[in-house]
Amino acid sequence: MQQRLEELDQAALRRRLRPADTQSLQLIDQHGQPRINFGSNDYLGLASQPLTAPARPPGDRLPPVDQPPRRGSGASALVCGHTLLHQRLIDALRQLEETEAAVLYPSGYAACSGCVAALARRGDLILSDALNHASLIDGCRLSKAERFVFAHADTEMVEALLKHHRRSFRNAWIVTDSVFSMDGDIAPLQRLAAIAARYDATLIVDEAHGTAVLGSDGSGACAALGIKDQVPIRIGTLSKALGAQGGFVVGPQVVIDYLLNHSRPLIYSTAAAPTTIAAALLGVQSIAEEPKKREHVQRLSRRLRAGLRSLGKDQPADDSLAAGVPIVPIRLGAAEAATAAAEQLWDRGFYVPAIRPPTVPPGTSRLRVSLSAAHSEQQVDALLEAIAHLPVA
Fold this sequence. Notes:
Keywords: Acyltransferase, Biotin biosynthesis, Pyridoxal phosphate, Transferase. By secondary structure, the protein is α/β, with parallel strands linked by helices.
């Protein structure tokens, strides 16, 4: 083990925990050195807000919930860990996602890996995007299905694989992120949905980085593209724009019932703490109540991307859906270059994480800027000025 760790040191790939005081995620403080934080996935700036009692929605017939919520759930959801707060959150997610049913998981990773591993069985076919999140990749590996990885966003390859293999398998599943976490680009969801319909396949989409950020109703990229009804199974997280922790899957009642009976991370994990669920419910309620947060972070994304284009950095067109995604990569190639750039930005007052293999493929190390509604235009402009002075950028 020590030898492998030393090899990681030599390749500038070793990871370490760096404790930080982050009472507010807008700033990150290490050893008394506060820096503007451009590394968090708190896209709407909700994670730092105080926990208050979620409002009871109109028509809510569930009994009132004692306040404050207890610290822990005490058991798995199927034993006695599923509280009235959990049920209220499920109802709120069903309404947001306009779907028949929903189920909660203790993390987004558990939702992705547990959903795919349970649904895809021996005798099935899975087609998975090459840049999918590790949780989707692990779900595909844990399933007993035959797996093919298609080149990133390559719908021609997807169709060719289905045309050649579909008849040999009972079910076919196309698995993809909606917004890819390291590049901030959006999957060709409309084309994938059309291919899935043509070959009797089911499209599973992970909306971890789209939920509460994209779509006029804040329900994600599928909504923004008008194809929610063509994507029967969607996965989301409570730990990014919603400012809490956990994951969820939405879909037809039969799918959710199947997961409740076959998805091991759901069955054998303690349910998320009621305090966490209360925070997530506040996040879902804020999507409808505070659309200006979503609009603000999208404006910041376009502002940063326009500034990077002026510095010669490749970025999506300003009128594209991807231009509003608050994940903005700056590719530098070598891991050493990314690490050096991150350290230089730290010295200038900014925390921007360096992303290196194995999170991204070798030769594609980068800075990954994550924007939040808590940021200001002035902070984005100051970051751009600091990036302009980077010798390696």
